[in-house]
Design brief:
- The complex is a heterodimer of chains A (109) and B (115).
- In chain A, 0% of the residues lie in helices and 54% in strands.
- Chain A has no helices and 11 strands.
- Chain A has strands at 4-5, 11-14, 19-25, 32-38, 45-50, 54-58, 61-66, 71-76, 85-92, 98-99, 103-108.
- By secondary structure, chain B is mainly beta.
- In chain B, 0% of the residues lie in helices and 50% in strands.
- In chain B, β4 (31-38) and β5 form a beta hairpin.
- Classes of the chains: A mainly beta (109), B mainly beta (115).
- The A-B interface holds A 8, 31-32, 34, 42-46, 49, 51, 88, 92-97, 99-102 and B 31, 33, 35, 40-45, 48, 50, 58, 90, 96, 99-109.
Chain lengths: 109, 115
């Protein structure tokens, strides 16, 4: 069964520090990788996607992909209280997406 | 431009009642999806539709039926609701691009309680 694993947290990070979120996946054929942010009571919203090995940066966010290790990570620099949310890692091996259960991130003021 | 619209936002049902959750998207996407989200379980795929006229089962299809009415609309029906179907339901749509690019856009969700 295709799986996406994340630490459920909560991960507590001081304001201004770097938050590091990690994810592993089981299907080596996966081609697309996503990070969604979900605030409590709201729907998931896409914040990053990555298709190639290496790093992809967008503002304070950096997604990192290592297909050999089947590992995806998300770094959030200069963490803000508004970054407090659940972060869902998602992997697309075919025409569907498999979501991890999410990591709760709490930014400490 | 509304994106993905779900109705209703909240619903309370009694065991055995039926209801249909509606979803419509205005982004001209071919693919549409229905998920349920339960505490500690993440998002689980119920059914999806890769294109108008086609539907396929996801991870947790039992107790549900779907209809892809046209390219815009994808409905989810509970024929005989059970307490185990108490959940938050999300509809999503996407346009799958080259290399498996599958960026999904979500509706606001329907919070369903079955008593």
């Amino acid at each position: 069964q295709k799986e996406v694993e994340q630490n459920s947290g909560p991960l507590s990070v001081p304001e201004g520090a770097i938050a590091s979120l990690n994810c592993t996946y089981s299907d080596r054929g996966s081609q697309s990788f996503f990070w969604y942010r979900q605030y409590s009571g709201k729907s998931p919203e896409l914040i990053m996607f990555i298709y190639s090995n290496g790093d992809k940066e967008d503002g304070r966010f950096t997604a990192q992909l290592n297909k050999a290790s089947q590992y995806v990570s998300l770094l959030i620099r200069d963490s803000q209280p508004s970054d407090s949310a659940t972060y869902l890692c998602a992997v697309s091996p075919d025409d569907k997406i498999i979501f991890g259960k999410g990591t709760r991130l709490h930014i400490l003021p | 431009n509304a994106g993905v619209t779900q109705t209703p936002k909240f619903q309370v049902l009694k065991t055995g009642q039926s209801m249909t959750l509606q979803c419509a998207q205005d982004m001209n996407h071919n693919s549409m999806y229905w998920y349920r989200q339960d505490p500690g379980m993440g998002l689980r795929l119920i059914y999806y539709s890769a294109s108008e006229g086609t539907t396929d089962k996801g991870e947790v299809p039992n107790g549900y039926n779907v209809s892809r009415l046209n390219k815009r609309e994808f409905s989810l029906r509970l024929e005989s609701a059970a307490p185990s179907q108490t959940s938050v339901y999300f509809c999503a749509s996407s346009e799958i691009g080259a290399g498996g690019k599958n960026i999904q856009y979500f509706g606001a969700g329907t919070r369903l309680s079955v008593l």
